[in-house]
Amino acid sequence: MGFVATLLPNSTYVQRLREGLRDHFTLVPCATWGELLGTCAREAVSVAVVGLFSPNETSETFDWLRQLERRFPSVTVVAYTAIPPARPRDLFEAGRFGIEGLIIEGEDDAPARLRALVEQAEARGLLDLLRPAMAAANPLVRDALLVAVTRAHQRLSPERLARILGVRRKVLAARLAEERFPTTQRLIAWGRLLVAAKLLEDGGRTADSVAAALGFPSGSAFRNTCQRYLHAAPLEVRSSGGARFAVDAFVTACRSGAMRPVTRRGARAAAAMLRARAEAVAS
Question: How far is Cα 205 from Cα 194, in angstroms, rounded to an integer?
Answer without folding.
Answer: 15
